[in-house]
Every structure is written in C-alpha cells, then in structure tokens.
Amino acid sequence: MRSLRLALLTLLAIATAAIFATHVQAQPKKKVIKKTVSKSISAKPMAPKKIAGTRVIVSTDSGNMVIRLYDSTPLHRDNFIAKVKEGFYDSLLFHRVITGFMIQGGDPNSRYAQPGEMLGMGSAPGDRIPAEISPSLFHKKGVLAAARDNNPAKASSNCQFYIVQGKKYSDQEIDMMGMQGGKPVPAEQRLAYKTVGGTPMLDQNYTVYGEVEIGMKVVDKIASVPTAPGDRPISDVRMQMKILSDAEFDTLWKKEQNNLKKISVLKATPKKTFKKKG
C-alpha cells in the first residue's frame, strides 16, 4: 500500500512538472521592434547627370560660379562666349541686386563707376540680340537670362544679364500666376518653383540661356549684400569670366560631387534599434 502511494505521488510530480514546462514554453517571447530614424536625405544621393555644353566660370568677390550655356539658344550663347573671350566682363560690377529676385550685371559703364553712380543703361557696340524665348526654358532659381528694354520684339541687351535667385511658391500662388499668363503652368515647372524656387512672373518675357551648375551659394551671398537706393550694392561686387575647358570643368565637377556626398553623409541620421519593454 505504501509502495502504491509513493508511485502515485511520483506520477503526480511528473505530471505537474510537465504542465509547468508547457506553460513556460507557451509564454510569448518579448518582441523586438526595430525602428529606423532617418532624415529624407540619403547617404548616397543620386548624382546629377553631367550635360555636354560650354561652361563659363564667373569669379567674384563673393566666390565662384560655373554657368552652363544652353545650346538651344545659340544667338545668346555665341554672343556671351565672344564677350567672355574678349574680356568684356572682366572688372564689371553686379550693379543691381534684389534679394529674393535676381542679381544683374554686364553694364560696361560699371567698370569705372563712382560710388553712388546710377547704372544699368550701358550697352556694348552692336545690335540687340533677337529673342530666343522658349516655353521649355523658364525662370527657375539659378538660370542665366538676358536683360532688355521695353522693345516690342523682346530683343535682348547684347551684354547685360541677370541670374535668378527668386523664392519658392505655393500651388495657389503658381495657379494665380498661371491664370494671369493665360496658360496653366506645366508640371515640371510647377515642381521646380515649389521645391527650388525662381521668378515665374518673368517667364516668356525674357530669354533664358544658361544656368548655374556650381556655386549657387554665391548667388545667394551676392543677393544678400546691403544695397543703396537703386539696388546697387554699397560695396562693389566685381566679376571676372573665363571659358572652361572640358578637363577644367571635369575637375570642378568631381570636386563638387564629392562635396555633396560628404554633406549628405554628415546629414544622414544613423539607424537605431529600440527594444519594446514589457
């Protein structure tokens, strides 16, 4: 009898141990939830495509810019190249600067202008440049465009130019400007004006014939200098220009892309893993 009782107790102990073990195994494991915290800037951004064309380096008191001239506006391109080669622009001023709008230069009267002298009426020998206005060329931030007077043909000054700084616009503002122009703003241009900025009110009224590829911060810097009445910078901002060879541009291009990669890596937030408690 005693042996039977011991046997029963042993079986009961084994059964209890088995239930306990099953219960432990059935407990849900703690979940590890991985959360990635990162910014929209990738550590490896898509590098912009290098486009063939003529490049001009514009050296200023505020830094250097590299401008690509459009082949689709050959009259303005060739006129600008000829003047750069002959040294026409060397030592001229950015004589008109408006923050959030543009920076303008190329008046030959600015080379020896006295402080406070009004500028903007000068021109080079020769005729105006016939307009080369295209619906696909618009006033996004950084474009090079030709200044002009109020002639009905919208022909351009043969020397004065401006570089757009502009500002960013909302959909509502773009729609209003599109209505004023009588045509809807194309999707590509709308995106540029919302994300990059520009001066859309100038579209289809002035010839756009190039764009800044390197040195946009220089445009912003010049656009922010203090000005006197008439929008002339209080301290002169002079320019020098040179046509870049393909090899010279390739060197600057690679340096710029490396700088952009370094900035992207610094801005990228490392991934972090968090364990959910409980």
Textual characterization of the structure:
Residues 4-46 have low confidence and may be disordered. The protein contains 6 helices and 8 strands, in the order H-E-E-H-E-E-E-E-H-H-E-H-E-H. The radius of gyration is 32 Å and the shape is globular. By secondary structure, the protein is an alpha+beta fold. 31% of the residues lie in helices and 16% in strands. Strands 3-4-6-5-7-2-1-8 form an 8-stranded antiparallel β-sheet. A hairpin with a 3-residue loop joins strand 3 (94-98) and strand 4. It has a single domain, classed as Cyclophilin (Beta Barrel).
Quick rundown:
The protein is of the alpha+beta class and 278 residues long. The chain contains six helices and eight strands.
What class would the helix/strand composition place it in?
alpha+beta
Strand content: 15-25%
**Average pLDDT over all residues:** 83
Largest sheet: 8 strands, antiparallel
How many helices? The count is 6
Helical residues, percent: 25-40%
What is the CATH topology? Cyclophilin
Features:
278 residues; alpha+beta; eight-stranded antiparallel beta sheet; 6 helices; globular
